[in-house]
């Protein structure tokens, strides 16, 4: 990781251990010994009985160096010097945070937080266009079905002279007009950076929610007109409750993502601080 303060150790050809410090200035460092931005009075390494390499180092702490992010990497030897390690598998998962003040170590084995953020970023950006087009398809299909229903209602009215259901008819006309405005508004949608996009969003959401509320009310008016059995009305109420719960969960999830994103942004300064990059290099056969 470019910019890391690194503790390196490997086993030499004579079997002895060699440990030193260096800094990573680019993605292909020469891994030659070099000082760090803080003092390291002593550094040694040894193999444990279970075959793990352990680095022992004394760090000169300061007011700045109170805690740090830590990553452990393992790679091959190349011409007597540590070579480039793998960037996948366990090398991309061995991360943690060290607090030098209280001596605590927070290990984040498994998928690293950075990898998680990359995964979330990719999924959200992959789903968002699909969700947008799904929204457009559903709205367009709903409008087409609504127009068919509205036309059917007009036909029923013409076939029943003298029979008038004023509230149901008037609501149907209003809903048809609002639905038509909602669909054609897509043709006038400003680009995201346009100064009027905010007002278009307010209009779009207001008309959309108004249409939904009026449609629900008019459906209940239709039940009364048909004098249908309570079974149909109960089933429809069950569908509304289900959709309401789904909407509430999606809204809660949206706010959770927004709040988490804001917290991540506020901690960016800490995340961009110094890193200690520990390497466990092994000589390959």
UniProtKB/TrEMBL annotation:
SMART domains: B561 (SM00665)
Chain ranges passing through the membrane: 131-151, 171-188, 200-220, 235-259
Sorted UniProt keywords: Electron transport, Membrane, Transmembrane, Transmembrane helix, Transport
Subcellular location: Membrane
Organism of this sequence: Salix suchowensis
Chief localisation class: membrane
The name this protein goes by in its record: Cytochrome b561 domain-containing protein
Domain Cytochrome b561: 57-259
């Amino acid at each position: 990781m470019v910019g890391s303060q690194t503790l390196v150790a490997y086993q030499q050809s004579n079997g002895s251990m060699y440990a030193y410090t260096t800094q990573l200035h680019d993605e292909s460092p020469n891994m030659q010994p070099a000082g760090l931005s803080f003092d390291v009075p002593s550094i040694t390494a040894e193999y444990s009985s279970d075959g793990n390499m352990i680095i022992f180092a004394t760090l000169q702490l300061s007011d700045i160096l109170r805690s740090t992010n830590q990553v452990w990497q393992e790679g091959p030897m190349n011409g007597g010097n540590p070579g480039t390690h793998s960037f996948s598998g366990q090398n991309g998962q061995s991360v943690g945070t060290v607090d030098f003040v209280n001596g605590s170590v927070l290990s984040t084995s498994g998928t690293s937080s950075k990898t998680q953020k990359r995964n979330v970023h990719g999924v959200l950006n992959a789903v968002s266009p699909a969700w947008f087009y799904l929204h457009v398809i559903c709205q367009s299909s709903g409008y087409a079905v609504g127009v068919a229903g509205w036309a059917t209602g007009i036909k029923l009215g013409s076939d029943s002279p003298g029979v008038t259901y004023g509230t149901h008819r008037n609501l149907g006309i209003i809903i048809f007009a609002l639905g038509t405005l909602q669909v054609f508004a897509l043709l006038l949608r400003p680009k995201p950076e346009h100064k009027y996009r905010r007002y278009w969003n307010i209009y779009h959401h207001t008309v959309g929610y108004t249409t939904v509320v009026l449609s629900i009310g008019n459906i209940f008016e239709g039940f009364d007109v048909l004098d249908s059995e309570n079974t149909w009305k109960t089933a429809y109420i069950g569908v509304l409750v289900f959709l309401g719960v789904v909407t509430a969960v999606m809204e809660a999830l949206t706010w959770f993502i927004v709040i988490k994103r804001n917290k991540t942004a506020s901690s960016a300064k800490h995340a961009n601080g110094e890193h200690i990059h520990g390497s466990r290099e092994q000589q390959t056969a």
